[in-house]
Amino acid sequence: MILSDFKCKNKDCGFIFEEIITPDVKTLKCPRCGSQAKRIITTSTVNLANEDAPWIRSILEVVDKESNKPETIEFLRNPTRSNYKRWMKAEGLRHLEPGEKPQKPKIDLDKIKERVFKKYRERTRIEI
After folding, report:
1. Which domain holds residue 79?
2. CATH code at position 28
3. From its phi and psi, is residue 91 left (phi > 0), alpha (psi between -120 and 50) or beta?
4. At residue 105, does pLDDT exceed 70?
5. Shortest CA distance to 73 belongs to which of 59, 61, 87?
């Protein structure tokens, strides 16, 4: 038994419907008008709208929406797996390998101390 599509031969009706049949059946009666309906070949109806994982859309929250880079613009416009990979490569990012821990960015504490102390001096200075 197979699921097959049929189209009514009556030009006024033209109804398309599905039936479960044996492979040797070529015609059936149209359920709408009773005319003869011929078996037609149709492509499968695979939904490709969700071909990518749902988490890809969550990446859009961290993408720089002001960027003029073509990879970023395309990823924001069409968040697919292939555009995600192009965006990652353009940004110099990569996935963590299994068991790999994220590296903490190296912070120059001397520069931070200098900036904080400079701001402190500006706020607390006394002018005569």
Report:
1. 55-91
2. 2.20.28
3. alpha
4. yes
5. 87
